[in-house]
Design a protein that fits this description.
Layout lengths: L6 H16 L7 E6 L2 E7 L5 H13 L5 E7 L13 E5 L5 H6 L8 H4 L7 E4 L11 E4 L20 E8 L1 H8 L3 E2 L2 E13 L5
Antiparallel strand pairs: 1-2, 1-9, 2-7, 3-4, 3-9, 4-6, 5-6, 5-7, 8-9
Helix pairs in contact: 1-2
């Protein structure tokens, strides 16, 4: 799969076609994450984090999230008492198609310092290791998580993570997934993501 050289152009072209066909303009593109526990609706802030949103929508449209999973979880009670606490669920294709993660280029890190976004309750953000390494994997915050903002302590490099949207419906599902059995920071078993699709307006 060849990456788009200008992913932001792909996003704007995609939104233009959608608007032209429907005669309706929506402020933010919205995706539906379909899981075995219910559906989660997330609006994406393409005006704040254009490269991250464009790449995520490219992945959604390609169908790579079909039969993927939420596989990682952070729960406050499972974390060392001498460390900062954070709560989130992380998903993507790490379990279903890990080879593709290595093939996809990293997305330039759009830090919260650049975008003005924050890791608030329900924020969706790009998982990563080093700066500019994030691509297909994402996490959803459970509660406010300022440690993931620029300058926070969630990553030693201090750059934080690329927040790019927020749950607008389905936080009950997020909390139910977060409460599932886990071993350390791994869900046992992973929670199935049936698919992620583009929907406007949300149901």
């Amino acid at each position: 799969m060849k990456p788009y050289k200008r992913p932001e152009l792909f996003l704007f072209f995609f939104l233009f076609l959608f608007t032209a066909c429907n005669g309706t303009h929506y402020a933010h593109p919205t995706v539906e994450i379909k899981t075995t526990f219910g559906n989660i609706y997330v609006e994406l802030y393409q005006d704040k984090a254009p490269q991250t949103v464009a790449a995520f929508l490219k992945f959604v449209q390609s169908g790579i999230y079909k039969n993927s999973s939420f596989y990682r979880v952070l729960k406050e009670e499972d974390q060392p008492s001498n460390a900062f606490k954070s709560e989130l669920i992380q998903g993507g294709i790490y379990k279903s198609n890990p080879a593709l993660i290595e093939k996809e280029p990293g997305i330039p890190l759009e830090t919260t310092q650049k975008t003005g976004l924050k890791h608030l309750d329900g924020t969706i953000s790009l998982a990563r290791t080093t700066p500019n390494s994030g691509n297909t994997e994402f996490f959803i915050c459970v509660g406010d998580q300022p440690a993931y903002d620029y300058g926070g302590e969630a990553n030693p490099d201090g750059q934080g993570y690329a927040a790019f949207g927020r749950v607008i419906k389905g936080m009950k599902t997020v909390h139910e997934i977060h409460s599932q059995d886990s071993n350390g920071d791994n869900f046992t078993p992973p929670v199935k993501i049936k698919d992620i699709i583009y929907v406007n307006p949300p149901k």
